[in-house]
Amino acid sequence: MQLAERGIVEIEDEYRIPLYHKRDIALVRGEGPYLWDAEGTRYLDMMSNYGVAILGHAHPAVTAAIVAQAGRLVSCHQSFYNDARAAFTQALQQLLPSSLRHISFGNSGAEAVEAALKYARAATGRPRLISAKRAYHGRTYGALSVTGEAKHRASFAPLLDGCEQIPLGDLEAARVALVDAAAMIVEPVQGESGVRVASDDYLQGLRRICDKTGALLIFDEIQTAFRTGQTFAFEHSGTVPDIMTLAKPLANGLPIGVTVVSPEVADRIPPGSHGSTFGGNPLVCAAGIATLSVVGEPNFNPHVSKVGAVLLERLRAIEHPLIREVRGRGLMVAVELKRNASPVLQRMQAADVLAIPAGSTSVRFLPPLIVEETHVIQAAEAFEDALRAVGEKEGNG
Ligand SMILES: Cc1ncc(COP(=O)(O)O)c(C=O)c1O
Prior knowledge:
- The protein is of the alpha/beta class.
- It has two domains: 5-58 and 299-393, Aspartate Aminotransferase, domain 1 (Alpha-Beta Complex); 73-295, Aspartate Aminotransferase, domain 2.
- 37% of the residues lie in helices and 18% in strands.
- It has helices at residues 5-15, 48-51, 60-70, 83-93, 109-124, 141-145, 150-153, 171-177, 200-213, 263-266, 282-295, 300-316, 342-350, 373-393; strands at residues 27-31, 34-37, 42-45, 102-106, 129-132, 163-166, 183-186, 189-190, 196-197, 216-220, 243-246, 257-261, 323-329, 332-337, 353-354, 356-358, 362-365.
- The strands form four sheets. A seven-stranded mixed beta sheet has the order 4-12-11-10-7-5-6, with helices on both faces. A four-stranded mixed beta sheet has the order 1-2-3-15.
- It is globular and about 60 Å long.
- Bound molecules: pyridoxal-5'-phosphate.
């Protein structure tokens, strides 16, 4: 494929439904923490394609696994057994707490959430689904119904009946809302809305309320898994959910969604009540096995914590009137600005560093988890330069 940058942009723009605010570069190649555009410019990747390429791009073990499996068997319906699926299942089990054992496969985060919501209703026999304001759980109808931001839901009503959003961190609201509810779904760190960390106390409180009311606790770890310095973000609070959703990083870029449930929930899901043609296919599972074997190495979480702490510290050290707050856990970090983030992101891109927005006012750093301190220091410096340039232009610092 040898399309020049202009050709790529023209073709996509002519035929796409304009759903995305496009960045004006075409990314065509990656290696480790770097991406290249069609004109040969190299960028430092501080976004891992929205939290997906955690081992960086073209990771040799993942590439080798994909190539080998592609020459062997790509698809295998889940009504048959498969060796790659079994091996992936085993690798995932080694990372999970013993009370979260049973899994089903889909192909994306939204699908993992759909399954979780269906299982919660099936297991409890109750319809009401509670989520947090500002939450993001995906774009399909069920996931959208528990997504907090009204802007994502506008135009698509009516959504699922029985869904209600409560403020993140408000246990009193949870106590009221969770009476007779099927479940509370929550991101341990809200990603899309600007990296808002749910406190350990709050997650522990939710667990207690769910235990009392019989509502199930669902943690959406689609963005947080492996990224916060623990294998799963819930480990910081020691709060184990009844259901957990996983997707983005599991196969380092191949599409995957997994819903994990406790044995008690699994027992109450009617056989045949959910499924997916592509889910759990051997190609994705082979990439997933290679990915999880790196994630399971003893130094993986300490590395994420250490490099994440450097990034957070460097960003917190920046003094600028346009900064409202710096938030983060591990290598999931955002700087909320007092203005729209996009000019800052554009200037960082012009300095060959790619970060992404979270909401409209936050600059978010979701780098591959193999980045070193030198990379995050470079990113923090590029952010500071970009912020100062934008501020000066507007007479702000
Ligand atoms: C926490 C969370 N849940 C669900 C999703 C939806 O995942 P997908 O885009 O793969 O459907 C996302 C995507 O950003 C997410 O961050």
